[in-house]
Amino acid sequence: MHIDIARYENLAVEARDEGVWVVTLNRPTKRNALDANTIEELVDFFSTAPRAGVRATVLAGSGDHFCAGLDLIEHHQADRSPADFMHICLRWHEAFNKMEYGGVPIIAALNGAVVGGGLELASAAHIRVMDKTTYFALPEGQRGLFTGGGATIRVADLVGKSRMIDMMLTGRVYQGQEAVDLGLAQYIVEGSSFEKALELAHKAAQNLPLSNFAICSAVSHMQNMSALDAAYAEAVVAGVVNTQPEARARLAAFADKSAARVRANY
Ligand code: 1HE
C-alpha cells in the first residue's frame, strides 16, 4: 500500500523519519471544522496507514485551534435529510474507528478549541497532548444538535457519563490541569503540544509494529467484550505477538543484560 500525499486537500500529510507521519487538519480559516471531504480524507489516510508502513502518526490542527467540530456552515447550507446525516455520521464512525482500531499509534497534538466533533476526533486518538491554550467542550446542546461522531462512546469513556451530560447540557468548558485529571488528555505541556506529540510518536515508533498493532487495536476491542471473551482474545493475541520472531533479539538483549532496565523517574 502507498500513501498518495498529493490526493489530500483538507489534510496536510507529511512523512517524517522513522516511520512517523504527521497529519494536519488544514483549514485554519474554518478553524479546521470537519466537512464531509475532510472526513473522507481521514477515512482514506487511516485505512491505508496500517498497511503502508506507518509506525506512528501525529494528528494536529493548523492555526490556533485544533478543531471546531462539525462544519456547521456546510451542514446549514446542505439542509440534510435525517437519512443523509445518518450516512454522514456513519462516515465519521468509519474514520474514527479506523483510527482507534487500526493498530497504528495516533498521538493528538491539541491546541485552542477541541470542541464538539473536534473532541470526538481527538478522543479516537490513542494519546492526547494539550498545551496551555487547549480547551474542551461539547457545544452541541447550545447549537440544537447532538453528538454524532462517537462522543457517547469515547468521551463518556474518558470522563464518565455524568460529566459528559453536564458538558452537553451546560456548555461547560474544561481546560488546564483539570482536563488532564479528568482524562481528556494524558499530557499538558508549557510549550508546544506538537513537539511533545512528535517526541511520543517517535518513542512509540521504536516498538515492534505487531506489538503496537495489538496495543492500538486489541485493547479497544477487548473493552467491548465480556471479561471471559476478552481474556480468551488476550491469550490469542499474546500467542501471536509474544512469539513474533522480531522479538527474539529484544528478549536476548534482556537475557544478556544489555537491554535497558525499567527504572523509576527520579
Ligand atoms: C466554522 C466553524 C464550524 C468556525 N463550522 N465554520 N462546533 C461549534 O459549535 C464550535 C463553533 N466555533 C466556534 O465556537 C469558534 O469558531 C471557535 C471557538 C472554534 C474559534 O473562534 P474564533 O473567534 O477564532 O473564530 P470565528 O470568528 O468564530 O470563526 C472563524 C471562521 O471559522 C468563520 O468563518 P468565516 O468564513 O466567517 O471567516 C467561522 O464561520 C468558521 N468556523 N467554526 C463551520 N464549526 C457529527 S456531529 C458533531 C456535532 C458538532 O460538532 S457540534 C459543535 C460544532
From TrEMBL:
Q: Spell out the InterPro entries in the cross-references.
A: ClpP/crotonase-like_dom_sf, Enoyl-CoA_hyd/isom_CS, Enoyl-CoA_hydra/iso, Enoyl-CoA_hydra_C
The organism sits in which domain of life?
Answer: Bacteria
Query: What CDD domains does this protein map onto?
Result: crotonase-like
GO molecular-function terms, A-Z: lyase activity
Key words of the record:
Lyase
The protein's matches in Pfam families, at most eight in alphabetical order, are given as: ECH_1
Entry's EC annotation: 4.2.1.155
Q: Which NCBIfam families match?
A: PRK08150.1
Q: Which family does the similarity line name?
A: Belongs to the enoyl-CoA hydratase/isomerase family.
What's this protein's name? Answer: Methylthioacryloyl-CoA hydratase
Q: Which organism is it from?
A: Mesorhizobium australafricanum
Protein's gene:
dmdD
